[in-house]
Q: What sequence folds into this?
């Protein structure tokens, strides 16, 4: 007999336990290697260029292939995840990335490496969507912001780790070793993740009630440790079926617009400013060595900013935290072009990096997956990420034009304009998701 499944409310009233920590670890280490592999391009491409394996034009194609692959992966994973489940999807994309990374280590020429990078990009783009969305469906609403923001710390930690690893590994073992490390890491995580369960929320949303109930009983037994659990809240309304067409309906279209715009803004900030910092520093008269030292110092702001986002979003709410972080980024973005002192420059740059990565945690990890009902969560998140990743394809050309004609002031004027737009759109059209159950958010969309 199929019981009361009501998996969302039952998951939300669970105490944090070894079950949640195991799920976080298994998803988190995969997300770490996702971040690690995104950021190894900076070290690998310098080595391939120096050795004569690649040209500047080929390096540009390598970067473009990464972004195109991530855009395709973001789009495809949404449909796979909502159709075949979260578990199948995060295992498939990790296997795709891991195998392509291992093959890349043995690429005979740059053309083959670029093609393999396209495949890796598909896996990387998919991992970002399905990883955050899957954890969203397991963690209780009262601490969801903290846990999802913590997941963003896993991802952005790949930035300093990749830089440090490349510094020691590439001179000793060549750039190929970096792909071997990423591939082996992905393969190990793929094996460990075989024990990661399917989302009971998804099972229930597709009518697989017996599986959802059996899995919920296992989760409850582990999480409670045999102690009695409080009664779950009753469902707000009978289950409502959401389909692909609902994303363009009056209930969810405003959320799609907010999510897409938010990810366009944060991707432009990351790939239009943060990744260009070494170039900006050199153009401002610093040596290459000093520029990398400044960039490394500022990169420490990535995990710090993500951690701040994780620790504040539940207490302050999603919308206020997004607006406040954007405001701080605007202030320091306005000050940055006028700082010439060699001591103050990295300090102000660090102060600018921190709120940017608060937004990374909030937008990538927390807010966007919460906006949409379980039935269409991955498709909606995937489409929003597709717009965000698509913006990165043209961003480098726009940044070069702005910097060539207007200097760093031109680049930061674009960033400040985008941040102002983000504040207005989120505050006026966004919905507050903090500490609300995912089912409550879906119900609110239906009755809006």
A:
């Amino acid at each position: 007999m199929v019981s009361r499944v009501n998996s969302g409310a039952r998951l939300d009233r669970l105490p944090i336990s070894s079950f949640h920590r195991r799920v976080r670890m298994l998803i988190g280490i995969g997300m770490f290697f996702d971040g690690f592999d995104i950021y190894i391009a900076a070290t690998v491409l310098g080595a391939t260029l120096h050795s004569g394996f690649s040209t500047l034009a080929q390096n540009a194609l390598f970067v473009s292939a990464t972004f195109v692959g991530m855009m395709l992966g973001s789009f495809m994973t949404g449909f796979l995840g909502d159709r075949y489940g979260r578990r199948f999807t995060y295992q498939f994309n990790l296997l795709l990335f891991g195998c392509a990374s291992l093959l890349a280590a043995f690429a005979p020429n740059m053309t083959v490496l670029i093609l393999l990078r396209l495949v890796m990009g598909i896996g990387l783009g998919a991992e970002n969507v399905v990883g955050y969305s899957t954890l969203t469906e397991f963690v209780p609403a009262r601490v969801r912001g903290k846990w999802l923001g913590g997941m963003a710390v896993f991802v952005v930690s790949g930035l300093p780790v990749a830089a440090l690893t490349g510094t020691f590994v590439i001179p000793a073992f060549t750039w190929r070793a970096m792909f071997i490390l990423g591939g082996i890491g992905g393969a190990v995580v793929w094996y460990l993740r075989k024990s990661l369960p399917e989302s009971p929320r998804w099972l229930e949303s597709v009518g697989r009630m017996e599986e959802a109930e059996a899995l919920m009983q296992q989760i409850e037994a582990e999480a409670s440790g045999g102690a009695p659990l409080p009664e779950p809240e009753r469902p707000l309304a009978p289950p409502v079926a959401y389909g692909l067409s609902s994303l363009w309906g009056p209930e969810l279209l405003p959320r799609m617009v907010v999510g897409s715009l938010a990810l366009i803004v944060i991707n432009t900030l990351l790939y239009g400013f943060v990744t260009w910092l070494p170039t900006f520093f050199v153009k401002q008269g610093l040596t290459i060595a000093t520029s990398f030292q400044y960039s490394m110092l500022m990169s420490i702001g990535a995990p710090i900013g993500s951690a701040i986002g994780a620790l504040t979003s539940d207490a302050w709410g999603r919308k206020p935290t997004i607006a406040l972080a954007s405001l701080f980024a605007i202030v320091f973005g306005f000050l940055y072009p006028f700082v010439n002192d060699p001591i103050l420059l990295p300090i102000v740059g660090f102060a600018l990096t921190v709120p940017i990565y608060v937004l990374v945690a909030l937008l990538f990890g927390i807010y966007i997956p919460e906006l949409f009902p379980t039935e269409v969560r991955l498709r909606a998140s995937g489409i929003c990420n597709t717009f965000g990743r698509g913006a990165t394809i043209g961003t480098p050309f726009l940044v070069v034009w702005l910097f060539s004609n207007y200097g760093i002031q031109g680049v930061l004027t674009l960033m400040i304009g985008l941040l102002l737009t983000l504040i207005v759109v989120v505050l006026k059209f966004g919905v507050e998701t903090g500490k609300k159950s995912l089912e409550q958010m879906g119900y609110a969309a239906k009755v809006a």
About this structure: The chain has 19 helices and no strands.
